[in-house]
Design a protein that fits this description.
The protein is mainly alpha-helical. The chain has two domains: 62 residues; 61 residues, Arc Repressor Mutant, subunit A (Orthogonal Bundle), CATH 1.10.10.10. A three-stranded antiparallel sheet has the order 1-3-2. The N and C termini lie far apart (71 Å).
């Protein structure tokens, strides 16, 4: 194989890789935009729920948040609402909710808690510790 053929093959591989990288960057941009929109919608829904909860008379019983169709997010927020001053570690929260305590499950919940912190529902008083924002 001659040097010219090697250079041509190298250039072809380079062009293909650049095209693939550009395609992946476009996908990342689309997914990042979709994620930002979805997280903004979650924040709107959480704020709406907070306003509605604030308008509910104290003597009016609220519907239980934990139903068969309740999401994990709802269950997490319910725990923090029931224990507003308590600081939870992720593993303790999993044990409280009866969720698996394997590392992948813990990491998913850690990510969920991070989103709830960014949305302003929770605060992080220390590394790996979460509590309801007061």
């Amino acid at each position: 194989m001659s040097v010219h053929e090697l250079l041509r093959l190298l250039q072809t591989e380079h062009d293909d890789t650049v095209a693939r990288a550009d395609h992946l960057r476009e996908q990342i941009e689309r997914h990042t935009t979709a994620l930002a929109q979805t997280e903004a919608r979650l924040a709107e829904l959480a704020a709406t729920r907070k306003v509605i909860d604030g308008l509910t008379p104290p003597d009016h019983p609220t519907a239980p948040a934990e139903t068969a169709t309740a999401t994990v997010y709802q269950r997490i927020v319910t725990v923090f609402n029931e224990h507003p001053g308590q600081v939870f570690r992720v593993r303790d929260l999993h044990e409280h909710l009866g969720l698996p305590t394997d590392e992948p499950s813990i990491n998913v919940t850690r990510s969920r808690l991070g989103r709830l912190v960014r949305q302003g529902l929770l605060e992080q008083p220390g590394r790996g510790r979460y509590q309801k924002r007061t």
